[in-house]
Amino acid sequence: MYVPGSTPAHRLDPRAKLAVQVAFALAAFAHTTPRGLVVATGVVAACLWAARTPPWEALDELRLLVPFLLAGPLVETVVLGPPWLAPEQAVAPALASYRTLLVVLVAAAYVRTTPTRESQAALQWFVPGKPGRALGLCVGLVARYLTVLRADLRRTRTAMRARLGDQLPVRERMRIVAVTGLGRVFDRSDRLALAMRARCLSWNPTLPRLRLGRADAVALALATALLAWAVAPLVASTGPLVWPLA
Amino acid sequence: MSTQEQSVDLVDASTALALARVALFAALAGAFAFVSFEYPLSPAPVTLQVLAVFLAGLFLGPVWGAVSMGVYLVAGAVGLPVFANATAGVGVLFGPTGGYLLSYPLAAGVIGYVAHGGPEVRSLDEVGVPRLVAALVAGVVVIYTLGAAGLMAFGGLGLEAAVVGGAVVFLPAEAVKLAAAVGIARSDDVAMDA
């Protein structure tokens, strides 16, 4: 979740932060080796430092991923038959899990330091024209209605429990919750569409202004370096004539 | 101080309604990710995310259904807590469970296309139960194929571990959601104006 603040990462332009995030993910995938991941760990440390976020706080929000990260190496270690355990098979999944952890940490730093409104403006800058406007509008509406629909569903489940509905079969409980959710969705979207048109919903509204500063140059340089590092193995293996096609 | 003049290009009524529905279905998928049921035949609590994919394909059709799930992914990528357990960020999309998430737009498109027999949206009353089931089964195949591929690509699992641990064990719970989705599509509880 976004945490208001004034760290260096908060002051960066959202476009520069998104560039670093994507370039980092590509670089980490291209260099899933012990040496590559040591370098990547250094980049993660720098990102978290810029966001003034201790890694355990960033990880705390992502607890759900931990079983999946551990499952890969554990499942591959066990073999069906003697000698039953093959730790050497766990090396590749363990590296992949660690890489995922790093990518998730960089993304968590972005999420904590970027308000949705800025992400929306960046989206409309990345995707020009009507599709970008529609995308920005829809993401803004998701942010607005997520909590509303969540509260609708919570009320439904409370009402169902109060009437001993939790003793119904799972299929029936799912159906009741989903029907209520759908009903609310159609109801709210009809009213929302009317309200948006009443307020002159247009394809060309005035956008918040995005400006690149000096700190953003540093972030963009980092993103460029990461991108170059990510494509370096491709260039080395296929030769300079072919790589623009890859 | 510079001034700028431009005329307002209004969004027409049908597009405004379509966009509102796209956004609300994406938000519903985010809200469904929070609703979990204990199910004895499933190793993990079952969330309703996939049911939202089914409903988006059935009720919005292949085009807007796929757009809606695309909006859901973008909303999560830019930081709204719409994925399971209130997670967000590009990292989740490229994490071990990323394959499932990335398959949602395609799955909603496939479900809508098979159920409505083409890109045009028909009334669900005209769609027979066998066609509904076929559409949803096709959607489940898309989600779990890409999900298992994601576990292999992003989680480093082998083929066998990904298929058994990432798809087969969840199929009984998917059958329950599939039955629920057919029940919803065939019931008169949800009224939608075209």
Task: Explain the overall architecture.
The complex is a heterodimer of chains A (246) and B (194). Chain A is an all-alpha fold. Chain A has helices at residues 8-11, 14-30, 34-50, 55-60, 65-77, 91-113, 116-126, 129-162, 170-198, 214-238. Chain A has two domains: 8-114 and 212-245, no CATH class; 121-198, no CATH class. Chain A starts with 7 loop residues before the first helix and ends in an 8-residue tail after the last helix. The model of chain A is unreliable at 241-246 (pLDDT under 50). Chain B has 194 residues and is an all-alpha fold. Chain B has one domain (15-186): Orthogonal Bundle (Arp2/3 complex 21 kDa subunit ARPC3). Chain B contains seven helices and two strands, in the order H-E-E-H-H-H-H-H-H. A two-stranded antiparallel sheet of chain B has the order 1-2. In chain B, a hairpin with an 8-residue loop joins strand 1 (36-37) and strand 2. The longest helix of chain B has 29 residues, at 49-77. The interface between A and B is large, with 80 and 73 residues.
Put the structure in a nutshell.
Chain A: It comes from Halomarina rubra. Chain A: It is a multi-pass membrane protein. The complex is a heterodimer of chains A (246) and B (194). Chain A has 246 residues and is mainly α.
Please give the structural blueprint.
The complex is a heterodimer of chains A (246) and B (194).
Chain A: H1 8-11, H2 14-30, H3 34-50, H4 55-60, H5 65-77, H6 91-113, H7 116-126, H8 129-162, H9 170-198, H10 214-238
Helix pairs in contact in A: 2-6, 2-10, 3-6, 5-6, 7-8, 8-9
Chain B: H1 13-32, E1 36-37, E2 46-47, H2 49-77, H3 90-93, H4 98-116, H5 129-155, H6 159-166, H7 171-186
Antiparallel strand pairs in B: 1-2
Organism (chain B): Halomarina rubra
Transmembrane segments (chain B): 18-39, 46-65, 71-94, 131-154, 161-185
GO molecular function (chain B): biotin transmembrane transporter activity
